[in-house]
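job 3f2a | input accepted
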Amino acid sequence: MESQSLILGIIIAILSALIVLWPFITASRDEESAESRMEQLVAQRDAIYATIRDLDFDFETGKLTEADYRAEREAWVERGVEVLKAIDALQEETGVSIPAGPAPEETPPPDGSDRAGLDFDAQIEAAIASRRRTA
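job 3f2a | predicted structure (135 res):
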């Protein structure tokens, strides 16, 4: 009879410990998934920036008509707004920060003008941020 009581006591102790530790176990999993979601969103954001830069370059070189350029750029900016809103929401919800990426490369303006120090990513960020405020 004592052995049965001992086994029952051990089982109750294990279950109690599991119940107490469960929030800590799941919190680490949630944090990892939030970090991976943030990495996915940042990758999407970077891809959208690259696409917008490519569109700008194609328009400047005459590969796109103005109507096509405006429509495509508008669509990509809207996608960028949605991704940035998702990044902001994830940051507020989980506190996960944006992972540091490689330093942005400096590229000359596509129109060939001499605008040293012009940061296209900053221009795109500003355009998307202004859209976010109005959306």
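job 3f2a | The two ends are 71 Å apart (CA to CA).
job 3f2a | closed
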